[in-house]
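Milestone M4 deliverable, item 7.
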Amino acid sequence: MEILKRILTWLAVMAALTIVAVGIWYMLSMGSLSTASLKWLQFVQTLGTFAIPPLMCAWWWSGDYRPLRWLGLDRRPNGKVAVLAILIMVCAIPGINLLADLNGRLELPESLDFIEHFLRQQEDEAAALTKRFLEADHFGIILINMGLLAVLPALAEELSFRGTLQQVLGNRHTAIWITAFVFSAIHMQFYGFVPRMLMGALFGYVFVWTGNLWIPMLMHFVNNSLAVLSFYLFDNGTDTNYADTIGAGTTWWLGVLSIMLSIGLILLLRQRAGQK
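Output delivered:
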């Protein structure tokens, strides 16, 4: 009963602050759908939906009004574990691409064609919006995009999912996978659902092993920042980001090798995290 009460409290705060954030944006922008205005919407909505509610709830639930301790943010991360976490995310790129490619090949039965059409349309619209956000004509915009699409989501989403939902559910295997499922579903991108869920589960296990939320935040940031940087390095104004093809298609063997290497590094991280 206590778990349900806390989840409902978190969702209520999240809903209220999301409405406030969107309301503030609308009053200041008058509902403009320009790229700059949508970036401001992304900023205030991320704060209102994912960043502030966990901090408020942790302050209430901690008992001693020390939200950072409750969230697992009160200690500096182990340096060796942090380096391993970065290596895992870098090495996992071809494996993530392979899983995303396989996920993208999934087809629903003919009777559900209308659902598949809707899902692919949503995917295309999300990709188009992301590309619109990433377009930049000077270095300052690139830094803003890194903050908006890499730094802020890494901090805010880990506060909400691993820091709050997973802990409320009990930090057990079931809690990790339920949280990973919700984490992937909330992105509303069906054809990237599987790799994102597995990534969420990885973040969840790393949080349990280390007891430190900074490490999943770091891993999340590395993943997002590599995606942002690859756009500027490899896109070149085309419709295909070639960094996303490494490990997929004819280079599937790189994806398999990447997954095997990543598993080895994950096991090593678990061992290091258990050492005092």
